[in-house]
Amino acid sequence: MIIENKEIEGKEIKWILRCPTKEDAYELSKLRVQIDGETENLDRELGEALLTPEGFEKIIYDDLMRERNIFLVAEVEGRIVGFSRCVGNELSRFRHKAEFGICIMKKYWGYGIGKVLLENIIMWTDTVGIEKISLNVVQTNTKAIQLYKRFGFVEEGILLNDRIHKDGNYYNTVVMGRLSKNR
């Protein structure tokens, strides 16, 4: 699925919200490695589950071809600084659902990019008839949890001791979901 490019005037920065093209694959591959190394809020550590540029090209192509998938990037001054991907479920019993995630370079946290990505994911899911979107978030990422709650997400459960961070401690994962207003 493709959306039109949107110029966003955010908190102290201007940026572009758009869908990626195959020319973005190399930059996205590098960006994902960088973001994985900047935070423990995501599932991967630096260098794990690498996605090559060819892997990103395939994802970009597949998402463009599928009605129930969308891939968005945030571009500041010609550089991609974050992205969000929402993937609809293809199984008949779960076609009403989709899962998504948001990744933003640490340097760009606090500028409202995550909020805009989330707003656009929600608008898109409501438009294409996805009735429920869900995500997992580490329990210590309280800013993200607060943002999701402001947009109608509820905590559906806690996965206890679900992950181990570099400090050797276990952390819980919060499962969150949002039902469409059109439901």
UniProtKB/TrEMBL annotation:
<protein>
    <submittedName>
        <fullName>Acetyltransferase</fullName>
    </submittedName>
</protein>
<dbReference type="GO" id="GO:0016747">
    <property type="term" value="F:acyltransferase activity, transferring groups other than amino-acyl groups"/>
</dbReference>
<feature type="domain" description="N-acetyltransferase">
    <location>
        <begin position="15"/>
        <end position="181"/>
    </location>
</feature>
<dbReference type="InterPro" id="IPR016181">
    <property type="entry name" value="Acyl_CoA_acyltransferase"/>
</dbReference>
<dbReference type="InterPro" id="IPR000182">
    <property type="entry name" value="GNAT_dom"/>
</dbReference>
<dbReference type="Pfam" id="PF00583">
    <property type="entry name" value="Acetyltransf_1"/>
</dbReference>
